[in-house]
Amino acid sequence: MTVSNPRRVGILVFDEVEELDFVGPWEVFGQAERVSPGSFETKLLSLDGKGIRTAYGLKVDVMAAARDALPLDLLVVPGGRGARREMKNPEMLDLLRSVRPGKTLVASVCTGALVLAAAGFLDGKRATTHWAALEDLRAFPTVTVDHRRYIDLGDVVTSAGISAGIDMALHLVEQFLGKEKASEVAERMEYHEGLPERVSRA
Asked: Are the C-beta atoms of 160 and 190 separated by less than 8 Å?
């Protein structure tokens, strides 16, 4: 079945981003597009449209400058060492604040939650992040910190560290396409988080 109106997804990367923070969701939405052609149009974005270098030195080309990709249905902000710089970057915060409330679902992985908090997206909300950054998130007095795999508040979704972004992305696929399609995506990825371990016996 082909979906006529794909959901526009942007994953906003930056120097020193944690690799799995963005590649995990990228893989999930890519597999979802294979399962339901036309369901997701996913792009890697940066503030200036130029490539970035990840936390472990991987050079990554992006597809567009973030502002040129707007409007989006979903914007994912990953974390990593660079997130602590981006949470103080006026250009990053201005971009996030330009996203239209109610039109774009905003999600974070790991310390991407600190960037969302700095932009005001988590004011008066419950949120999570990597266990090592919980105290940093608590430094925002209006944010209620609750360490869970992910927290979905409807217009904002936050997830815990690194691999938790995969769980969050699968959850979003389920929200968009239904449980059956999300399960098919997880099966294609051989990702069995929360499922009984499969053992091959010779």
From this structure: no
Q: Which fold has domain 7-188?
A: Rossmann fold (3.40.50)
Q: Which residues contact 129 (CB under 8 A, 6 or more apart)?
A: 79, 108, 110, 111, 112, 113, 114, 136, 137, 145, 158, 160, 161
Cα 18 to Cα 32: distance, rounded to the nearest angstrom: 22
By annotation, the residues acting in catalysis are 110
> Phi and psi dihedrals of 104, rounded to 5?
-120, 125
Q: pTM to 2 decimals? A: 0.92
* Residues in a beta bridge with 144: 126
Q: Write out pLDDT tens, residues 82-125.
A: 999 999 999 999 999 999 767 899 999 999 999 999 999 999 99
How sure is the predictor about 157, in pLDDT bands with cuts at 50, 70 and 90? very high
108 within 8 A of 139, measured Cβ to Cβ: no
User: Do 151 and 157 touch, CB atoms closer than 8 A?
Assistant: yes
Give the C-alpha distances (Å, rounded to integers) separating 29 from 11, 126, 130. 11, 25, 22
